[in-house]
Design goal:
single chain; alpha+beta; 9-stranded antiparallel beta sheet; 7-stranded antiparallel beta sheet; 5 helices; globular; disordered N terminus
Length: about 350
């Protein structure tokens, strides 16, 4: 029996070590309470000693921080007062989106932020446009479908997305979020996430380690993370602020933030990696390496059925014309060749 318990403990330790490894790098995590938000929300308030500050229509209850109620034209947010100077970090967010609206008649969504600016009202899920930093959005309403219909185009396999949809965007202060297209032109990646009106807990996982951004979701009630996006070469400065916001328009939802827990990740780097990081200049402006390549497939919109028809038609006519010209030239050449023998 003791031997059995021994191997159970060994297996548990090996599993934990595997969980705290990233690309063969040993890693430990430590909860940073000053950047975290959880029940009973004692750190939220207007006092200077509070670590978190409410804005707009957000309010604290015993069970959640409600960013917006299920009412039209509301926006609210909660922002950390403390800038974060961690190099590598991980955030786990428990949230709930629910309301009385029908399946496709609810909106607009919520966002998790790590930005230079804080407490700025605006149209991007309750925050300002042209932000500087990282935004991870849970978008519950499809605006792009109307945009594509107005352009007399159709969805293709490259452009169609199922909503609610989770996506990430890095802004440098001059990049605008395209509301009509649900941020499609500037997204780093994303995934569909049916998070609305669920009876179980829903979670969002954001990890930034060694300039790699990873987003996962746990929305199926199975306590398992599902991949959403994984982007290398993301450069985020230190000293920005964490926050969460939400907005409603003509359509609405309750957007509830239940907990937001930030972990500092301690990663053991090789000597070569440490030397390379020391040689690189300090990151001042957020950016993403090879961003044009990442967006290449997204910027190529699918053609409509009419466009495809006429493209094929003119291609066939062009080929036919070339064949006719080729036959005429060949006939003329053959005629002249025969004349030279007489």
């Amino acid at each position: 029996m003791a031997f059995k318990y021994y191997w159970t403990i060994v297996l548990f330790i090996l599993t934990v070590n595997h969980c705290f490894a990233d690309d063969d790098h040993e890693m430990e995590e430590f909860l940073k309470r000053e950047y975290s938000l959880s029940k009973p929300y004692q750190g939220v308030g207007s006092l200077s000693s509070s670590h978190w500050e409410l804005m707009g229509d957000a309010m604290v209850t015993t069970d959640q921080v409600r960013l917006t109620p299920d009412m039209q034209s509301k926006q609210g947010a909660v922002w950390s007062r403390l800038p974060c100077h961690l190099k590598d970090w991980e955030m786990q967010v428990q949230f709930k989106i629910h309301g009385q609206g029908k399946k496709n008649l609810n909106g607009d969504g919520m966002a998790i932020w790590y930005t230079k600016e804080r407490k700025q009202k605006g149209p991007v899920f309750g925050n300002m446009d042209n932000f500087t930093g990282l935004g991870v959005f849970v978008d519950t309403y499809n605006n792009e479908e109307k945009y594509i219909e107005a352009q007399k185009k159709r969805y293709s396999t490259r452009t169609q997305r199922t909503f609610p949809f989770v996506l990430a965007m890095v802004g440098n202060g001059s990049i605008s979020y395209d509301h009509e297209r649900d941020g499609h032109p500037t997204e780093l990646g994303g995934c569909n996430a049916m998070v609305r009106n669920l009876n179980h807990d829903t979670f969002l996982f954001i990890r930034y380690i060694r300039r790699r951004l990873t987003v996962m979701i746990d929305i199926d009630g199975q306590h398992e993370w599902r991949d959403c996006l994984d982007i290398p070469g993301v450069r985020l400065p230190q000293g920005y602020y964490f926050g969460a916001s939400a907005i409603t328009g003509e359509l609405s939802n309750n957007h509830d933030l239940i907990s937001l827990k930030l972990y500092e990740l301690t990663v053991i780097r090789s000597q070569k990696e440490e030397e390379e990081e020391e040689e690189e200049e300090e990151i001042i402006i957020p950016s993403v390496d090879n961003l044009d390549l990442l967006r290449l497939s997204d910027t190529e919109e699918g053609m409509s059925g009419i466009a495809i028809f006429f493209t094929a038609l003119f291609s066939m006519l062009g080929c036919f014309f070339l064949i006719v010209v080729g036959l005429v030239v060949y006939s003329y050449w053959s005629e002249n060749r025969r004349k030279r023998f007489y």
